[in-house]
Amino acid sequence: MGFDAIIVGARCAGSPTAMLLARKGYRVLLVDRAAFPSDTMSTHYIHQPGVARLARWGLLDRVAALDCPPISKARLDTGSFVLSGSTTPESCDGDAYAPRRALLDKILLNAAVEAGAEFSEDFSVEDVLTDGARVTGVRGHNRSGLTVNVRAPIVIGADGLRSVVARAVKAAVYKAKPALTCGYYSYWSGLHVEGAEVYLRPRRVVGAWPTNDGLTVIYVAAPRGEFGKFRAAVEKNYLETISQLPSLDARVHGGRRVERFSGTADLPNFFRKPFGPGWALVGDAGYHRDPITAQGISDAFRDAELLADAIDDGFSGRQPIGAALAGYERQRDRAVRAMYWFTCYFAAHLEPPGGLRLLDALRGNQAETNRLFRMLAGTTPVTSFFSPGHLLRLFVSGYLAPKVAAQQA
Ligand SMILES: Cc1cc2nc3c(=O)[nH]c(=O)nc-3n(C[C@H](O)[C@H](O)[C@H](O)COP(=O)(O)OP(=O)(O)OC[C@H]3O[C@@H](n4cnc5c(N)ncnc54)[C@H](O)[C@@H]3O)c2cc1C
Q1: What is the number of structural domains in the chain?
Q2: Rounded distance between C-alpha atoms, residue 308 and residue 21, angstroms
Q3: Do both 197 and 292 map to the same domain?
Q4: Which of 20, 33, 187 to mutate to test the pocket of ligand 1 (most atoms within 8 A of CB)?
Q5: 93 CA → ligand 1 middle, Å
Q6: Is the domain of 115 the same as that of 247?
Q7: Going by CA atoms, what residue is nearest to atom 37 of ligand 1?
């Protein structure tokens, strides 16, 4: 059978791209070197924009049926004060979810196969095939070690941070920043969290939220430069950080860690040129950012839609394929520009731009606190939250007005 597209990587970026192209009637080959269900490193928090896409694709019910609680509340503990609010956008009643990746990725893969994509697991791509001018397919080996060549008009690298496709086509990198944080996480039973809890402390950010089977995932982020020290005694350093968070520490002591620690410092920040003759990149393969803002899954879902639409525009003749894919790059970069800035700042300083003074200005102002949480969720634009007019209003209402009122009293 001839294929219209070969997609390398079958997780948050690859499977939705395969599903969407197959639903449009294209013949898709999806390959992954892993066998599914398969876990991968992630704390798997899906913000509302990502959840909205799952709903649009008809997959949210499957995620919600996994004994995975919806998350609508958020709590930000600065050590001096706590901001509590809602992550739910005003315009809809959507919640966030944090399903385990082995479960989520299998749902996405099943949806791609149901839509008509052909899937080969345990298939490792080694290189792309070219005719000298454009990519024409992939060379890989299957589980029995047999080398296989497959051809299609487009090869899509959805193969993650260390993308083999990106390396083979020498995709240009831009706006790169080195890794800024490292982090470790694990899962706890008997530990209740009320929605998403985030703790800011000097040189540490801790996140905790509920996932499947009554478990809670707790992530500890530290500066990249401390990775060696952290890795030398992971449990000690992890628990030492949590011991500075009395409300979480008490619950950790009352709960039980049920899995080993996972962690990494391989968290660079960059964009890759996501297309060229006969190839495209989607998900982490094309854009990677620190996980501190938990945007990767939602980004991958959005880009899967943008890329599938662009390929359809090109293949159906509505636009030249090069112009359609250039539009995909433009839309992706525009969609993430401000969040990329925010993420890199947060990762570099382990506090948001404006620091505790900005957060202090939100105290007692529920509407603005919710707006902060919506900005973190990606439903209020970063640019509008950090616009000079909005910052001025926050400064006047949260800082200046109380001072003047106190002087008048
Ligand atoms: C510690 C950590 C915590 C995170 N927490 C969150 C979070 O809470 N929320 C969030 O939204 N994001 C989070 N992320 C980011 C998120 O996990 C990624 O953005 C997301 O997994 C990207 O999906 P992807 O499909 O692009 O790539 P991946 O998930 O990396 O999948 C790539 C797939 O390609 C396959 N592959 C690779 N090379 C080949 C090859 N040569 N041949 C065949 N197959 C190949 C791999 O087997 C893999 O299955 C976190 C990341 C880290 C590291």
Answers
A1: 3
A2: 6
A3: no
A4: 33
A5: 28
A6: no
A7: 159
pLDDT at 36: 97
Rounded distance from Cα 309 to ligand 1 centre (Å): 22
Q: Based on the domain organization, do 135 and 235 belong to the same domain?
A: no
**Site residues for ligand 1, CB cut-off 6 Å:** 8-14, 31-34, 40-45, 124-125, 158-160, 164, 183, 264, 283-285, 291, 294-298, 300
Q: Report the complex ipTM.
A: 0.99
Domain with 252 in it: what CATH number?
A: 3.30.9.100
- Would you list the DSSP string of 113-151? HHTT-EEESS-EEEEEEE-SSSEEEEEEE-TT--EEEEE
Q: What is residue 93's predicted lDDT score, i.e. its pLDDT?
A: 58
Distance 300 CA to ligand 1 centre (A): 9
**Average pLDDT over every residue of 186-194:** 96
For residue 91, what pLDDT is reported? 61
Residue pointed to by tokens 């003074």: 357
CA of 142 to the centre of ligand 1 (A): 21
Q: Which domain holds residue 396?
A: 355-408
14 CA: nearest ligand 1 atom: 25
Among residues 264, 295, 322, which one ends one of the domains?
264
Does residue 92 sit within a domain? Answer: no
Segment 163-187 shows an average pLDDT of: 98
Cα(160) to centroid(ligand 1), Å: 5
pLDDT of 169 above 90: yes
Q: Which residues, including other chains, have CB under 8 Å from residue 232's CB and lie 6 or more apart?
A: none
E-only strand ranges, 230-374? 256-257, 262-264, 269-272, 275-276, 279-281, 287-288
Q: How far is it, in rounded angstroms, from Cα 43 to Cα 93? A: 23
Tell me if 59 is assigned to some domain. yes
What's the confidence (pLDDT) of residue 90?
65
Residue 301's pLDDT is 98
pLDDT, mean of residues 44-73: 96
pLDDT at 401: 76
